[in-house]
Design goal:
This protein is α+β, with helices and mostly antiparallel strands. It is built from 5 helices and 3 strands. The longest helix has 30 residues.
């Protein structure tokens, strides 16, 4: 299995952070102001969530003057997906064995 830290899954376990990742995945790089627009979450709270995602390696921020643009780090999400795929395959094998035992 790829070396994926639990920090990735912990960071994605929060619904607000998962929502930020979803928006960045769908719309591409965005500023904190755009991520906060139309939300009941303050820019400060958005920043805190983005920093958590950044520490987990899921997003990356780049400053351009006074504005920070945030984007997804696809490599880390792909690594997490591969881990989940491997776990899913293990479960499929285990359930297949159980089905065989039950049907005998």
């Amino acid at each position: 299995m790829p070396n994926v830290s639990a920090a990735i899954f912990a960071a994605l376990g929060d619904k607000r952070r998962l929502g930020l990742v979803s928006r960045l995945s769908q719309r591409g790089p965005m500023s904190i102001a755009k991520l906060a627009a139309g939300s009941d979450v303050t820019r400060q709270a958005i920043t805190k969530h983005l920093r958590t995602l950044e520490r987990a390696g899921i997003v990356r921020g780049e400053r351009s003057g006074r504005k920070s643009m945030w984007q997804i780090e696809t490599r880390r999400l792909e690594a997490a997906r591969r881990v989940l795929d491997a776990i899913s395959k293990q479960w499929d094998v285990a359930l297949g064995r159980l089905k065989t035992l039950v049907e005998e």
